[in-house]
Q: What sequence folds into this?
């Protein structure tokens, strides 16, 4: 069954282990070396922030950026890899301190617009039609600091600008309710899809659902996926896991709650996710305690767990499930699923 799904991750998923309270604990692996690891780990797609592809891009001209991105494209070709998406990194520059598209300062909003245009140029050079928007700082620390109606208008304006800049591009909004902000304006998949309806071409705005982000919003990731699938809006996923309501942990897929992961694998498989070219994307972090030589296990493990859960979804006794649903015997259905997950 492996091989029906294509998997992707971003170079930031192989990392040095720094956290807000302590420095790096592993040496950096250079980008070219990371790319060589993809195939070995069972991955075909690379997720990019714009500056993962073109580091230091704010210091370069538009032409230089395109030239560098084309070089990356040829490295991808050599490795047999493709770019799944490009995401503008709109949360590190000083001009994005108070948000990017929703900043109260018009010159900062203009920076975000220009930076996004460069992201779109990179997408074009890397031959991907998908942009992911994690709207990291589009929210507030303080309720009264921004006007939430105006903020949504401004995000719509930014999306329309993207749609107009490249008529082939599609945008997958990666909703997240908090962190780094207290509250964001687009916290859930429902918000992302509703936002798309306000845009000039709603058919080109969809969602990238991250398991941990849904959990942080108090929602079930597989239900979020079902909602997006019903709207034909599931453009990508960021599978991972999360142990309750705390900082965004990006744990190995299925490592906290196997049943919750089972239901994500099940719904993706059931509705042929991937048939339209979508990748099974991961967004996972290795534990800080992990040594350098074994700091990619979270990636291969997440992939293996996903595939194993797809097998379990397929081997579930569907007639028995239907029977128990018909009898409304959900206690027995509960046991059936638990036994199935326990290998009985
Ligand atoms: C934050 C995230 C981000 C996004 C990435 C791509 C660093 O919680 O999940 O990962 O996935 O920026 O948009
Ligand atoms: Mg993510």
A:
């Amino acid at each position: 069954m492996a091989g029906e799904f294509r998997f992707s991750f971003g170079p930031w998923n192989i990392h040095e282990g720094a956290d807000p309270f302590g420095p790096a604990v592993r040496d950096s692996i250079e980008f070219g070396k990371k790319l060589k690891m993809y195939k070995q780990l069972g991955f075909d797609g690379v997720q990019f922030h714009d500056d993962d592809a073109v580091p230091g891009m704010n210091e370069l001209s538009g032409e230089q950026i395109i030239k560098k991105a084309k070089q990356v494209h040829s490295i991808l070709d050599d490795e047999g890899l493709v770019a799944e998406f490009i995401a503008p990194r709109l949360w590190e520059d000083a001009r994005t301190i108070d948000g990017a598209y929703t900043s109260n300062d018009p010159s900062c909003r203009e920076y975000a617009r220009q930076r996004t245009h460069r992201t779109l140029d990179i997408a074009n050079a890397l031959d991907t039609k998908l942009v992911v928007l994690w709207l990291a700082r589009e929210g507030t620390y303080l309720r009264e600091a921004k006007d939430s109606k105006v903020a949504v208008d401004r995000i719509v304006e930014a999306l329309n600008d993207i749609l107009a800049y490249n008529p082939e591009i599609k945008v997958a909004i990666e909703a997240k309710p908090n962190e780094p902000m207290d509250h964001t304006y687009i916290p859930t998949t429902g918000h992302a899809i509703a936002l798309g309806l306000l845009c000039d071409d709603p058919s080109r705005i969809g969602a990238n659902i991250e398991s941990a982000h849904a959990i942080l919003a108090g929602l079930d990731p597989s239900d979020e996926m079902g909602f997006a699938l019903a709207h034909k809006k599931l453009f990508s996923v960021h599978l991972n896991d999360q142990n309750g309501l705390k900082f965004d942990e990006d744990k190995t897929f299925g490592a906290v709650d196997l049943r919750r992961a089972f239901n994500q694998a099940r719904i993706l498989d059931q509705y042929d996710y991937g048939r339209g070219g979508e990748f099974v994307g991961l967004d996972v972090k290795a534990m800080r305690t992990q040594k350098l030589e074994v700091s990619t296990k979270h990636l291969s493990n997440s992939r293996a767990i996903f595939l194993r859960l797809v097998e379990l979804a397929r081997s579930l006794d569907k007639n028995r499930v239907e029977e128990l649903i018909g009898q409304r015997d959900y206690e027995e259905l509960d046991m059936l699923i638990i036994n199935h997950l326990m290998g009985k």
